[in-house]
Amino acid sequence: MSHAEKSINKWLITITVMLPAIMEIIDTSVANVALPHMQGSLNAGTDEITWVLTSYLVSNAVVLPMTGWLSRMFGRKRFLLSCICLFTLSSLLCGAAPNLETLILFRIVQGAAGGALIPISQAILMETFPPHQRGMAMAIFGVGAMFGPIVGPALGGWITDNLSWRWIFYINLPIGIIAIAMCLFFIFDPAYLKRSAAAMKIDYWGLFLLTTGIGALQVVLDKGQQEDWFHSSFIITFTIICIVSLAALIWVELKHEHPIINLRLFKNISFSAGNFIMFVVGFCLYSSIMLIPLFLQNLMGYSATDAGMVLAPGGVATLITMPFVGAVLHKRDGRKIVFAGLLIGAVSMFIMQRLSLEAAYGDFVWPRVVLGIGLAMIFVPLTTVTLATISRLEMGNATGMFNLLRNIGGSVGIAVAATLLARLSQTYQTNLVVHANPYGTAWQMHLYQVKQALISKGLAATQADQSALALLYGMIQRQAGVLAFNHIFWIVGVAFLSIIPLLLLLKRPTQAVEGGMGH
Length: 519
What we know:
Blueprint: H1 3-42, H2 46-49, H3 51-63, H4 67-74, H5 76-96, H6 100-115, H7 117-128, H8 134-162, H9 167-170, H10 172-186, H11 191-197, H12 204-223, H13 233-255, H14 269-299, H15 304-329, H16 334-352, H17 361-387, H18 395-435, H19 441-456, H20 461-498, H21 511-515
Helix pairs in contact: 1-3, 1-7, 1-8, 1-10, 3-6, 3-12, 4-5, 4-11, 4-18, 5-6, 5-10, 7-18, 8-15, 8-17, 12-13, 12-18, 14-15, 14-17, 14-18, 14-20, 15-17, 16-17, 16-20, 18-20, 19-20
């Protein structure tokens, strides 16, 4: 391809790789909203229906780190095309699934096909754009990536309410068909990928250990709180499988000449530090995104749609900020932008830590907007700086690892937040009940006022007594809940601050290093 042709195709390539990536990201968040409808339609219990999400996340996490290896094995264009075809086909089959077992099976296929879409898209973008435009390319990709979580829940809710849950899968068909057509016309394999595929031996042990290790880890994180962690033999078994598999995987991969995941990349201190920062950012982002709707729905009585409307402005703030960050990135040191982003993220958590049951809609929205701006300042520069020192040959491998660590960070964040919420609510409730002394004058006055209010509404005196006690207990529970949420928001804020020293380990990308990446 000539240079002129390359520059014409740059933006077409961007649209081509963003379509399947957006489809995959939306699909991850859309299903959450439709779970209650699926449960009724497929006659499944709450524990069983969550496997619709777990199965997708497990197969997604297993494929992520293999992306670079699979791209070299089959050729990137062929692999990307296969993934889009398989994703689109499995979406059709998920929509048509007659029972829960079939739906979970096709969700596993869909997750496996979707796992590779984002890292491949990122690798193609990092190669297509010259070094000084990479920040902008990542920002545009980030806009697409953020578009998913904003649109996903709202779109899922609307489709489920107005059509049926099956349509959240059928909607992928037209997007998939357009993505396949564009991929055929605009994506080409670079020469070095064609050269390397010929001499490759398949790393069967690596493949097996990676699948069992990451799969078991994802199951433990997803089901831990539900099964009461290590009080359950199911969780203990999967934890042992996970630890043994991952330990063996590290040993096997460092010995193999064509490993399925190249762990030697972590010798690069800058790459390792960037990945760890992304792991913690994933932890903070996913846990806060899970906590805010729970707070609103359980304690404030918001509907699912209203809770979505609190999250949406934060996503919009990220969308607006990302292109500016991308434009500034090639003039400024990316590490300083990440530093500012982490500080802003921490500030937003400390604002949320002050929320109470008296808070209005605006009180929830603006810290979420502050967080949205902070995230835009973290994601784009962190991705660009972390991947700047990686050679083109290893780019698919590196983007796969980077995305895997963000996702596992997210799973750890959700698991930790759910566990802390249950435990801290109990602790705070125990602490508060001590002050609700039935012999204290404050308690007796309050109980008397509530009782009189109920009697004036027409309740019998004996019934009013019981109802007044129930109302006061409900109030204690809600206040304990608020204290638990506030404690977790504080922990997430501290997590944002704790990774700031690691920024010193990141290398500032120089034109020489970037230029050496093959443009």
